[in-house]
Write a structure and sequence with these properties.
This protein is an alpha/beta fold and about 280 residues long. Helices cover about 40% and strands about 15% of the residues. The chain is built from 10 helices and 9 strands.
């Protein structure tokens, strides 16, 4: 697939997806959304991809939904569509299901879906010029992209409500203080620093272990008792423990050498994966 609204660049097992509508401040439209979904499918099926970075081209990360359609942009009855899945939610749910670590390198303003899409990413870095805004109350709509689930888990219910009630724009310093982002970087260093972090995930780690860990952590956010985690941990240790990667991980440690992990996410996930789609033990 040839991309128009994003760039897809894979180097040293790290995929960088760049939102590429700089003349529109990378506002999300149907083309960009479809291309991101395709890029994530492509990344999940490519064992050379060990980590993913999202960033924006130009001075913005993403200015939110493209409002060029005018005041009926969110009025789905105006074109006969009626109630249908929110596009931002389709996007964040796809990020949620991703098999690879996802890092946000927010290089500038990120409002509306530009902010909510980052809630589903694992780790968020920001440049000094980053700005965020959950502006839905100022547009007469409600938070989208599953952010009523993601945002309180990122920053707590009090901050999530303050930001969404007010719809105000806030800077990277506040985002850091409220634990929305991991760190603030000089604009010239942002991508390089994001790549350094991604390399920690991509190098000397088992891709299957990382994929399982991502799904275990995210899925357990909704568990009502630690026993649910214990069940998954137990099955996970059993099935990964007999894998080639587990044998290599122990042997390389004993031999004091770098590990050479060969198991593939596309072929070697534990047989009980994805467990949340199955209702009983095997």
């Amino acid at each position: 697939m040839d991309y128009e609204a994003i760039n897809y660049e894979l180097e040293d097992n790290i995929l960088t997806i760049t939102l590429n509508r700089p003349e529109k401040l990378n506002a999300l439209n149907g083309t960009m959304s479809s291309e991101i979904l395709n890029a994530l499918d492509r990344a999940d099926s490519d064992d050379n991809v060990k980590a993913i970075i999202f960033t924006g081209k130009g001075r913005a990360f993403c200015a939110g939904a493209d409002l060029s359609g005018g005041n009926t942009t969110f009025d789905y009855d105006s074109d006969g569509r009626g109630i249908h899945p929110d596009g931002g939610g389709v996007l964040t749910l796809r990020i949620f299901e991703c098999m690879k670590p996802v890092i946000s390198a927010c290089n500038g303003p990120a409002v509306g879906v530009g902010a909510t899409m980052q809630c589903a990413m694992d780790i968020r870095l920001a440049s000094e010029s980053a700005r965020y805004g959950f502006v839905f109350s100022k547009r007469g709509i409600v938070p989208e992209a599953c952010s009523s689930w993601f945002l309180p888990r990122c920053v707590g219910i009090n901050t999530a409500l303050e930001w969404t009630y007010s719809g105000r724009i806030f800077d990277a310093s506040e985002a850091l203080d409220r634990n929305f982002i991991r760190s603030i970087h000089k604009e010239s260093d942002l991508l390089a620093d994001a790549r350094k972090l991604a390399a920690e995930f991509a190098n000397q780690t088992s891709a299957v272990s990382v994929a399982m860990t991502r799904q275990m952590m995210w899925k357990m956010l909704g568990a009502d008792h630690p026993m649910e985690a214990h069940k998954i941990d137990s099955r996970g240790v059993y099935f990964t423990g007999k894998s080639a990667d587990a044998h290599e991980g122990v042997q390389s440690f004993l031999e004091k050498r770098p590990a050479e992990f060969k198991d593939k996410v596309s072929e070697d996930m534990p047989e009980f994966f994805p467990w949340w789609e199955k209702r009983q033990f095997k």
